[in-house]
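Hello,

Our lab assistant flagged a job as stuck in the queue for most of the afternoon. It eventually completed. Since we weren't sure the result was trustworthy after the delay, we are filing this so someone can double-check. Below is the sequence as submitted and the structure that was eventually returned. Let us know if re-running is recommended.
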Amino acid sequence: MWRYPAAGTRSVCELPTSAPHLSFNGAVIFHPVQTRIMTNTYFIKPGYEPSQHTESYDPEASRAYWTEERIHRSRIYQYHVYTACRRLIRTHHCNSFLEVGSGPGIKAAELLAPELKHVTLVDQPSVEPLVSNNLPNAVFASVNLELSDLDLGRQFDVVLCADVVEHLVDPDPCVRLIKRHLGPAGYAVISTPERDILHGPDCNHSPHHAHIREWNQAEFAAWLTSHGLKIVQHTLLPQARLGPVEYVWSRILRKFVARPRWFGCQMAVVQNGT
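-- returned structure --
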């Protein structure tokens, strides 16, 4: 695996005023130690209270997080986001791919890499050994997704960010990173939980301890378009992997059961609008 040079990146290891937080997808997010006053609502409804929770641990020991059980679970969650991304790659004959907040890169290795000529993954440095093992021919760059001014010096046909933004205190820099690296005719696939489906329309705070905030579909679309992104597709998918028969039956049931909870992952396919 080729590692992107540290020069020009802002590795979180060089930021002493931060404390790390491990997201559900495996991305290690560093939150500043000092309390932030969140004045940006990110287009979420009035009255919603973002979490102030941060989970600190020793970053040198963070690799121990990836037990065999967690690695197995990483194959299951957001599985249908990756298969949708694979269909996009095949349909548009895409060759280059960037994953933002990749975690260990297991699904990218199994589902996407065989379709591509160039694969780049960005995440916190703690996952680099796992990425190297799963995708030895990929390019890896370490990055703090909340502060990133990372420029890889190129753009990509497809950029994927699967269930990462809900873990970030300030997700705007992450979206700017995606937009900056998205080719003129490229597609970005961005997924996150759908709050109303999972918790009901009256939910004003995420019950998930690692989620800073969650959007419903209308809010998420408004936030993405505020960054100059054009939404090509916005759909609901299962959060965890379903078998082929289960998936077909679930899609049939969706016609009769309004807003089914098991389709609690929203996925937006976007392009650069400006």
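-- support follow-up --
The delay was a queue issue, not a problem with the job. The result is valid. The longest strand covers residues 182-193. Strands lie at 2-3, 18-22, 28-32, 96-100, 118-123, 139-142, 156-162, 182-193, 229-237, 265-272.
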